[in-house]
Specification:
The chain has a single domain, classed as Alpha-Beta Plaits (2-Layer Sandwich), CATH 3.30.70. About 35% of the residues lie in helices and about 20% in strands. It is built from four helices and six strands.
Length: about 170
């Protein structure tokens, strides 16, 4: 992933299973996201659903993103890749321990698609927020508890970026 570029990041549960089993899980997932990734990404939208998630983010332009970490004799990761890896591992380990389960929580690799232009970015943010409505998990944008919709439109301080500034 490249500095300064917007991405749509998403994944689903292994075998399409739920990985948010109760409300506390959603909060913990967002807390871990903030802990591991806030130094690397700016978040513009998100939506968490029982079986999958979506983030619209931009990779920060910072030297923290460059360099590599050796995670095995055959595999090297950039600091950003390591942060994503650590984020997903921390959440999966927590869920596995709490619910006495084993095995993969997520599909093998999360998906990431670069956002090519501002028009697509706006459509993507709408798509992310409409996802739980389309799945009939809530009745409207304002009723979706685990999305960034209300934070974007609100006036209270938030970690969600309200202005895109697409280049």
């Amino acid at each position: 992933m490249n500095e300064g570029v917007f991405y749509h990041i998403y994944n689903r549960g292994n075998n399409r299973e739920k990985f948010f089993l109760e409300e506390e899980n959603y909060h913990y997932f967002l807390k871990q996201y903030q802990k591991y990734l806030s130094g690397f990404v700016d978040t513009y939208a998100y939506c968490l659903m029982p079986t999958h998630f979506h983030f619209v983010l931009r990779i920060k332009e910072t030297s923290k993103v460059s360099g590599t970490f050796e995670v095995s004799s055959r595999k090297k990761l950039t600091p950003l890749e390591k942060a994503f890896r650590d984020f997903f591992i921390s959440y999966a380990k927590s869920i596995n321990k709490h619910y006495d389960r084993t095995g993969s929580l997520f599909q093998y690799k999360f998906k990431r698609k670069p956002v090519a232009n501002s028009s697509y970015l706006m459509r993507l943010i709408l798509y992310v927020h409409a996802n739980p409505i389309d799945a009939k998990l809530c009745s409207g944008f304002r009723n979706c508890r685990f999305s960034s919709y209300n934070a974007i439109l609100g006036v209270t301080p938030t970690e969600i970026k309200r202005k895109c500034g697409f280049r």
